[in-house]
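Protein in question kept underneath.
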Amino acid sequence: MADPFLTLSKDDRREALAVAADRTGRPIHLLDKDVWVVRTLQTLFSSTLGEHLVFKGGTSLSKAYGVIKRFSEDVDLTYDIRALAPDLVGDNDEALPKTRSEEKRWTSEVRKRLPVWVSDTVEPVIASALRDQSLPAAIRLEDDTLYLNHEAVDVRWRDRGGPTVEALKRRGFGSRLIYSSLSAFGNVAVDYAPKELILSLDASLQSLQDQNCSDSPT
C-alpha cells in the first residue's frame, strides 16, 4: 500500500512539510528524509527479509523506543548470520564463533558476501516497492550500502517581523554571498514580499547530505 504522503504532488508535499516544520521546529529537508526512512523500514520489515532483520543504532533508539530524539542520516540493520551464511554457522545453535580465529574467518567471509547479498536480495525489494507505487526515487549501491535518492525538496526560509521589505535594485555583497553559497545545491530564489523575505532552495537531499558529510570533521 502506497504511503499517502509520498503520492502527493511536490507542491502538496512541501505544504504538508511546512506545517510539520512550523510545529516541530525541524528543517523541512530532514522531515522529508524522515518520511522516506520510515517508509523504507516498513518496506523491508514487511517483506520476507523482515523475519531475520534487526533494526539497530541511534535511529532505532529514536524510532522504536523513543529513548532519544534525533534524525539520522542512515539506518543500521543487521541480518541473521544463520540466514545469510548457514554454511559458516553449521550446527552452532548460538550462531556465535567459538574461537578468535573462527570469528575472523566469519567476519572476512561475511564482508565478501554482503555486497552481493545487498545487490541481489535487498535492492530488488526496494526497487519493486518504488516501481509498484510509482515513487520518485532512485537506488544507488556502494559496496554493502544502499542509498535512496529521491525527488528534490523545495526548502523555504522566511524572515518576518522586521521592517518593510523592498526588492533589491542591485545585489550587494550579502546577497551575492547567499546566492553563491546556496547555488551549489540547487536553484535559489528570493521573494521580497512587503512583510517578509522568502528564500527558496530547490535542492536534492543528496546534495545537502553530501555537503553535510564534507563539512564534518575527519
